[in-house]
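Supplementary Methods S3. Complex input for the adenosine-5'-triphosphate-bound model.
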Amino acid sequence: MLQVEQLTRRFGDHTAVDNVSFDVPDGQLIGFVGGNGAGKTTTMRMIMGVLAIHGGQVLVNGRPITLADRKTFGYMPEERGLYPKQRIIDQLVYLGRLHGMSQKAARASATDHLERFGLGERAQDHVEKLSLGNQQRVQIIAAVMAQPTALVLDEPFSGLDPTAVDQMAAVLREHSRRGVPILFSSHQLDLVERLCDGLVILARGKVVGKGTADQLRGDAPVRHRLVLDGDAGWTRDLPGLYVADVEGNTAVLEVMTPGAERELLEHALRRGSIREFARIVPPLSEIYREVTADAHNVHDGDHALDFAGDKAKEFSA
Ligand SMILES: Nc1ncnc2c1ncn2[C@@H]1O[C@H](COP(=O)(O)OP(=O)(O)OP(=O)(O)O)[C@@H](O)[C@H]1O
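Predicted complex, serialized as C-alpha cells:
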C-alpha cells in the first residue's frame, strides 16, 4: 500500500499542494483528478522524490518511502523523456537495465510489450520517427516493463487513440491483479469512472473528495426522472417534492418527504400513463463539477479545509 500523508508543497508564497492525504491500496487503480493547476503533478513528483516535500510524508506498507522503493516503481512523468535519436528497442532495454533487469529480460519484456502495443515492427526505428501517440505508448512500456511494485502515472492516457487506451487499460489491470497499487492522473472522467477502483479529487491543492464513484455519489441528492404522456408541469404543485426541472412531458425531481413519490405516481396514473420513472445515476463528471465548484466558491482557506474534511470519504482498504 502506498500512502500519502498530509503532503504539502509551496512555490514561493503559493501552496500548490496543501495537506493532501490519500491511500493507494494494493491491487487498486486510483484515479487522480482535478483541474489544471490543482496540484496533481506536484503531488506525484513528491511521491517519486523528484521534488522536495515541504510537509507530510509518503509511506510504503506503513513505513517511510526510500530511494530503493522508488527505484522499483514505474513512473511516467508529465514531461516525457525519451531520447529522439535512439532506437526504440535500445532505449527500452537501457531503461529496463536502470530498473535492475538483465539485458536478456529487458529485451524480452520490451519486445513483448512492443508487440502488445502494436509496435513490434517499429522496434528498430528511432523514437523521433514515431507519432506522438506512439511515443506515448513507448513511454508507457518504459514505466511497466520491469514488473514495478507500484505505478505512478501522470496523464498516461492523454493523446492515446481508443485502441491504445484499451491496450493500456488491459496492461494496468494485469498489474493491479498482481497486487500493484496504481495511481494515475487524468482529465478524462469517463475513462476514470470506467477503470478506477477509487478516485481522489483535488482542487486548489486540497483533496475535496475521495472514495469510490458510488461513495461520492452518496453525497449527491437522489433524483428521479418522470416521463409522462402529457405535460409534467403539474408536478410542481405536489407537496413533499423538489422539482429541479420540467421540460414538456419530463420532470426531474427529488423526494423530500418519504412517501411523496407514491402520491406522485398515483396522480400521474390518474392523468394518463407513465412512460418512465427511474432513479438518475449522476455521471462522475457531474459529481466532479459539484465538488470542485463548491471548493472554488470557498474563499477562506480554513473553510476550504473544513469542507474537504466533511466531504472527503476514506477508502475502506
Ligand atoms: N516548478 C514550479 N514553480 C512554480 N510553481 C509551480 C511549479 N510547479 C508547479 N507549480 C504551480 O503549482 C500548482 C500546481 O501545479 P501542478 O502542475 O501540480 O498541477 P496539475 O494538477 O498537475 O495541473 P495540470 O492538470 O494542468 O497538469 C500550479 O499553480 C503551478 O503553477
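DSSP finds eleven helices and 14 strands in the chain. The longest helix spans residues 162-177.
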